[in-house]
Predict the 3D structure of the following.
Amino acid sequence: AYRPFYAAGAMAIGTLAIVGVIYGFWMPNVTTLHTSQRVATALRADGATHPGQVIMIDYKEPSLAFYQGGTIREESVNAYLSETNPLLWPRWIVMTRRIWDQQPAEVRARLAIVDSIPGWWYANKGQMVEVLVVRKR
C-alpha cells in the first residue's frame, strides 16, 4: 500500500542528489559559464579599476560591471572606435571578436589584445562568444 510513497521518496532523494552534484561540483568548474568573472579578473590584474578607464562595446553584461568593481561603462555605439578620435578612447576596451574583426586596420594598429576569453553570453540568447580585453597603445 505504501510502495508508491516510498518510490516517490526515493526519486526525490535521487533528484536532490543529482542536482546537488551538478550545482555543487560540476557547474562551478565549467569556465564557459563564468565569462564576466574571467574578463573582470583580467581587467583587475592590469589595474583597470578606475572610473573612465574601461568601456564595453557589444559585450554589455551587467555582471561584468559588478565583478570588475563598477567603474566600467557601456558604449552604445558599436562603431565607437572608428567614429571617435583615438585621443578620446579609454585605456581599456572590452569587445567581442566580431567587433574587433569589423575594425579598420588603422584602428586595430592602435590597440593591443591583452586577453581573449571564450565563454557563454547570457544576454545574447546564451550564445558562445569570444570576449577580447584590449589596451590602447
